[in-house]
Each structure stands twice: as structure tokens, then as C-alpha cells.
Specification:
globular; transmembrane; single chain; membrane; transmembrane helix; mainly alpha; about 0% strand
Length: about 425
């Protein structure tokens, strides 16, 4: 987008189009390039427009606000399907919880990005096929492939959401990076919404308790469930219409948590050695180890994405390099443990899924760590770190698709 901004300074109409397609990304890239073009009259105008401190909250257009209200209501209705349609909750939620809000977010970005009709059809068919497929899988609670499909399905829908977010343009690393930033901002905003909602719920039920009315069951079933379903939709709407709300919060979180997580991991690895915990023979510990790995990997990616906005601080880059290096150690331990278990007890769906995921994560981490090392020596290399992150997104999506659709057939739904 940086090149597009520079090339269209004399084309106000095209600049406006770029801005409306991705307000957050446009503002970030414009501010980065502004020192080079600050003498340009058009650039001065855009600088004032983009960086004017708006004290209020923008509620977007009426159509957008109406869409969010309707989408939130639909999300709540889908979440209540088990009660309304007399469906077993243990059957419905593991298979369909991701369909409560992901399809609505896909529709939102299809509309916002003015995606071509053929690409809209692709996303619609992908979601429809996923709904049909996951609900037709045999209802066997002991099936590992069913569990794996249910766990990986939200990741597939997340990938479809990413396709809509980037406007179907899969060749642009910058747009993929914007999608990751959107996810980080959405997590922050949704967390704030849920905390505020939790406080309001506690106060509301407490006030009714004081007058002798117990509304806990009703409140949870018809208010809390609806609120949880609507939170990602409302959070997305606020992030897209008010990028300034979390634009300064996310980098702070990244800067604070990077050294904290690095310290925690070093202490944790030392504690593992001290206590003699064995991920090679302790299945439950290996499972927790892999969950930890995924969580740390997410923090690494989030921190890099946020730090890349300002790569001038060498200490931050060194912290990220240390964090990614320690994460490689954790990944290597987990990978060696799963290889050991496969060699001892053979291949199962779970072991194969974990093996594939660990190999992908380790490969990605090695590439990111190498690019971070180069960034320490040359700060301009931060862009290559970003590319090394987003280049793996289609690979993760492909592996997720394989686990969902091929594993059940490969292992005869066992």
C-alpha cells in the first residue's frame, strides 16, 4: 500500500478509494511515508484528515450500524438453535460453535471490501460445504478424527474470513499482515467488551437479588448467550470504524508481554528440567506442552506484527529474537516427543495431526527467527520478518483443510 499511496498523490479519487477499502492500513502506511512527502499539498491535507484527534466515537454509516444489529441478532439465534430446535447441545456446539459468528463476519467484509460476485460465491460455498460436512460426520464421541475436525474447523473459517478481509487478493503480503493486525485489535476490543459485559451482568443480577428476584438462569440463557455471540461482531465493527480505539493499546500490550512471556518460558523450561517432567512418556503433559506452544506462537506473531510498526527500538527486536528462539526450543522438545511416541506406539490421528502442526510451526519459527536476526543487524529487514509470517498462512490453511476433510476418511472415522 505504501507504493500505492506514493503513486496516487495526484489522483485524489484513487486515494479516497484506497482509504475506504482499508482505513487502518491506509493510515499506518501514510504516516510511515509522510516525512518523505510532507511538502506535497495533497499529503498535508491527508495528514490533517487522518491524524485529527477525534474525541468522539464514530458509529459509521446507518447501513453499517443496521447490519451489525441484525448480524448480532442472527448470531444470538444461531447460538440458541439447540433450545429452539430441540438439538442435543453436546452434538451441536462442538461442531457448529464457529458458525455462530464467522459467516457473519465474512459477509461483513465481503460487503465492506466490495468483493467480486464470483469470490463471494466461493466463500459462501466453502462455508456451506463445511456446515454440511461437519454435521454429517458420524456421531462417535470416541472418534479422534471427529474431535480433530471440530478443533480445526474454526481455523478453516478463520482462513475464509481472511480471504474476505483481504478482498480476495491472496498475493498481497501487506493485506495479510493487516488481517493479522485486525485479529490482534479484535482480541483486545472483544476482551474489553466481555469484561464490561461481565461487570454489568454481575451488577444487574446482584441488584435483582437484593429485591428477592433470582434472574440468573433467564439472564444467562437470553442475555449472556446473545452477548457472547455478538461480541466478535460488535468488536469488529468498533475496530473498523474507530481504529484509534486500540491502535495505541495493542503495541503497548506487545511491548509489555514480550519480556514477561520470555522470562516465564525460561523459568518454565528450567522448572521442567528440575522437576523431571517427561513429555516423552507423559501424554497429558505433552498435550499441555503443545497447547503452550500454540499460545506462545500466537504471542510471538502478535508481538512481531505490532513491533513492526516501529522497528527503531533494537531492544524490542532483541526481545522478540529471544522469545522466538526459546519457542523453537519448546517446539523441538514437543516435536521430538511426538516422534518418539510414533516410533514406540505407531501413528494415530492425534499424533499425525500434532506432528504436522509442530513441523509447520517449527519451520515458520526458524524462518522468522532468522529474519529477526538479520533485523538486529539491519533494521530495514523488518519487512522480511513480516513476509516470513504471512507467507505461511496459506500453508496453515491447507494443513487445516487436510485434517478436517481427509483425516476422517484416511482413518475410517476412527
Amino acid at each position: 500500500m505504501k507504493a500505492e499511496v506514493l503513486n496516487n498523490l495526484d489522483n485524489p479519487r484513487q486515494l479516497e478509494k484506497l482509504y475506504r477499502e482499508n482505513k487502518v492500513g491506509f493510515k499506518r502506511e501514510f504516516n510511515l511515508v509522510y516525512p518523505e512527502i510532507k511538502e506535497n499539498t495533497v499529503a498535508k491535507f491527508w495528514n490533517e484528515r487522518l491524524n485529527f484527534e477525534n474525541e468522539g466515537i464514530s458509529w459509521g454509516s446507518k447501513n453499517e450500524l443496521l447490519f451489525v444489529v441484525i448480524a448480532s441478532c442472527i448470531a444470538g439465534l444461531v447460538a440458541k438453535f439447540p433450545q429452539f430446535l430441540n438439538i442435543n447441545e453436546e452434538y451441536f456446539y462442538p461442531r457448529n460453535i464457529a458458525f455462530i459468528f464467522f459467516p457473519l463476519l465474512v459477509v461483513y467484509f465481503n460487503w465492506k471490501r466490495n468483493i467480486q460476485t464470483n469470490k463471494i460465491i466461493v466463500t459462501a460455498l466453502a462455508i456451506l460445504a463445511s456446515i454440511i460436512y461437519i454435521n454429517l460426520l458420524p456421531n462417535n464421541h470416541k472418534s479422534d478424527t471427529l474431535t480433530l475436525a471440530c478443533i480445526h474447523l474454526p481455523l478453516l473459517l478463520w482462513a475464509i474470513l481472511g480471504f474476505s478481509y483481504v478482498g480476495g487478493n491472496l498475493t498481497s503480503p501487506q493485506k495479510r499482515l493487516d488481517f493479522l493486525r485486525y485479529n490482534g485489535d479484535l482480541v483486545v476490543m472483544t476482551t474489553i467488551i466481555l469484561i464490561a459485559g461481565g461487570l454489568m451482568s454481575a451488577i444487574t443480577m446482584g441488584l435483582f437479588e437484593l429485591i428477592g428476584l433470582n434472574i440468573g438462569k433467564f439472564y444467562f440463557e437470553y442475555i449472556v448467550v446473545w452477548g457472547l455471540a455478538a461480541a466478535p461482531i460488535v468488536g469488529t465493527y468498533l475496530v473498523q470504524t474507530n481504529p484509534q480505539l486500540v491502535s495505541k493499546v495493542s503495541p503497548v500490550i506487545a511491548k509489555v508481554f514480550t519480556p514477561l512471556v520470555l522470562t516465564m518460558l525460561v523459568i518454565y523450561l528450567a522448572a521442567v528440567v528440575y522437576t523431571g517432567k517427561d513429555p516423552y512418556n507423559d501424554r497429558e503433559f505433552l498435550l499441555i506442552f503443545n497447547v503452550l506452544l500454540i499460545g506462545v506462537m500466537a504471542i510471538v506473531l502478535f508481538s512481531i506484527v505490532e513491533t513492526s510498526k516501529n522497528s527503531s527500538n533494537k531492544i524490542e527486536v532483541l526481545m522478540l529474537l529471544g522469545l522466538s528462539t526459546v519457542t523453537i526450543v519448546i517446539n523441538s522438545i514437543a516435536l521430538s516427543a511426538i516422534l518418539f511416541r510414533i516410533s514406540e506406539w505407531g501413528i494415530t490421528p492425534n499424533r499425525l495431526a500434532v506432528l504436522g502442526g509442530n513441523i509447520l510451526i517449527l519451520t515458520n519459527l526458524l524462518l522468522v527467527t532468522y529474519k529477526l536476526y538479520k533485523t538486529v543487524r539491519n533494521r530495514n529487514e523488518i519487512e522480511n520478518v513480516e513476509i516470513s509470517i504471512v507467507s505461511f498462512l496459506p500453508i496453515y490453511a491447507s494443513w487445516t483443510t487436510l485434517v478436517i476433510f481427509i483425516f476422517p476418511l484416511l482413518f475410517s472415522f476412527k
